[in-house]
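Section 5.1 Outputs to date
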Amino acid sequence: MKKAKATIDYKNAVITTRGLTKTFDDNAVLKGVDLDLYQGENLVVLGRSGTGKSVLIKIISGLLKPDKGEVKVFGTEITGIKENELQEIRIRIGFSFQNSALYDSMTVRKNLEFPLVRNRKKLSRPEIDTAVEEVLEAVGLSQTINQMPAELSGGQRKRIGIARTLILKPEIMLYDEPTAGLDPITCIEINELINEVQEKYHTSSIIITHDLTCAKTTGDRIAMLLDGKFEREGTFEDVFKTDDEKVKPFFDYNFIQ
């Protein structure tokens, strides 16, 4: 499936990082990361496991603090702001966790209601019901509304996790390994859903993955994280049209073996 051309405002960066560094014990994970995410863009961050991809989006969402560098989200430097100001920004960001992060003791309906009840306290019951129904329809799972997470497949759990993120109508989506652990057919469905979310909700997204099919299908731009920095950036073809021994084996493993 070839990705449709998105409408991207390259004059409007909704996320900017400059010189981000992060070290855990003696392990330097990020070594001066510069990144721009533009309005309406799907940016894929590629890299092997342990290269700092998930650390990067946790810093962007304020869940981790960098050792050095700056992070601007919607033009606001977030590394030193107060918790209530950070929370106002976080509400505008949707975070799709690798494990979907659903509450096993709650039905699908209750899982989706939870962020609304916590963050939109003035909503009426009919407004909440409408919001739940709309996001379930958007991810194609209206029939699961009264099911428990344990009754869902891995792909369905992933979709419900995305629906719960969408219910607050975020302007930015952060996807952490969205196709990890899924069968090939379900991966295709999740990739298509990511593109549908971009088109329908006009989101700007960072998609963390080591799945090149996901990257090729969803990314307007690809940035490859190698040795703590972005070493290659551009279209999928730009990134992988190389004999660089740090890049070529990554492509070969995904598409040849």
